[in-house]
Amino acid sequence: MISIDRSFFLIDKLAQTNSLTQEEYEYLICNQNKRTAEYLFERSRAVRESFYNKDVYVRGLIEFSNYCKNDCFYCGIRRGNVKAQRYRLSDDDILACCEEGYQLGFRTFVLQGGEDNYFTDERLVSIISRIKESFPDCALTLSFGEKDYEQYKAYFDAGADRFLLRHETADSNHYSRLHPKELTLENRMQCLYDLKKIGYQVGTGFMVGSPFQTAGNLAQDMVFLRDFQPHMVGIGPFISHRDTPFHNMQSGTMEQTLFMIGLIRLTLPQALIPATTALGTIHPQGREKGILAGANVIMPNLSPMTVRKKYMLYDNKISTGDESAQCLKNLCESMESIGYRIVVDKGDHVSFK
Ligand code: SAH
């Protein structure tokens, strides 16, 4: 079979069975081109629409602290970056972000931050309870890294609904080239299994085009997603940050990211898949193209304007203008222009409805 025919054959097989072998995923990733990508996206859009119609869910992202005890080589808020201006939001700041977001139509709030020990379990449980009491019709998503089972359980019991923790790469050698040695893939995976066991809607994901990543690594990521069956999958291009050890590394591409979104949609038909900020950062239409490749979630920034520029995970992260929640109207219009609609909804995974 010539390469394009084999690619079409594998895309059909994936659409029918939601599963390929690692070798088959790798074949598709290595042999992608404009034609196979279009073929993939036609199918990924159809699958997405069969579960979620033309609806796009929005999540209000609140970046509550950029202090971090970790030193991940790729990340702009790593401990070792002395140039980062550090900040923390108070409980009242966070509640005010939610209030503003609620008025705008958000029904999910995402508390994201570095791994900041100032936020003890007591403080976290208290803020989680306050948010859930104030906004009982909203979902609360957490995203602040690795904790142990009991800690995750305490946040869940306080009312948190979902947790985002990207696995970053499913290959332990690759993992160790992106992280200092105290961070291991094994622990990351343990966290993900704990979160699922507790009952969270669990999100994971990885960067596309991260340093040293191979097509084989991306295929391993797909096999992990196929087997783990997360409810949410966030992926975005790696974008270098000037004050990290990876400052000279090449960034990932939009095309590669879109292709991976298509593969993820066919592997996990019901998943919540965001068109991420990083995708919107490398291309002005990145998020729209992400939706057209099979994504169904957008996560606008709800953090106070004064701190937005300080939560710089990578260079040029979009943080003003269209990225601000106040510009939700623009986002609504741009989604309508491609035939989709932003909805006022918690946007649970279909298995949680
Ligand atoms: N500390 C939390 C969440 C904050 S970082 C955690 O560990 O989950 C959120 C995500 O941003 C990371 O999982 C990583 O995949 C992504 N990220 C970090 N640096 C990046 C970079 N330079 N380019 C693209 N994405 C990056």
Structure explained in plain terms:
The protein has 353 residues and is α/β, with parallel strands linked by helices. The protein is built from 14 helices and 9 strands. The protein has helices spanning 3-17, 22-30, 34-52, 91-104, 121-134, 149-157, 172-178, 185-198, 215-228, 254-267, 277-282, 286-292, 305-308, 328-337; strands at residues 55-58, 60-65, 108-113, 139-143, 162-164, 201-208, 232-237, 297-298, 341-343. The strands form 2 sheets. It has a 6-stranded parallel beta sheet. It has a 3-stranded parallel beta sheet with strand order 8-1-9, with helices on one face. Helix 9 links the parallel strand 6 (201-208) and strand 7 (232-237). The mean pLDDT is 95. Bound molecules: S-adenosyl-L-homocysteine. The site of S-adenosyl-L-homocysteine has 19 residues, from loops. Residues 74-75, 112, 114-115, 143-145, 165-166, 168, 207, 236, 238-239, 241, 278, 313-314 line the site of S-adenosyl-L-homocysteine (SAH).
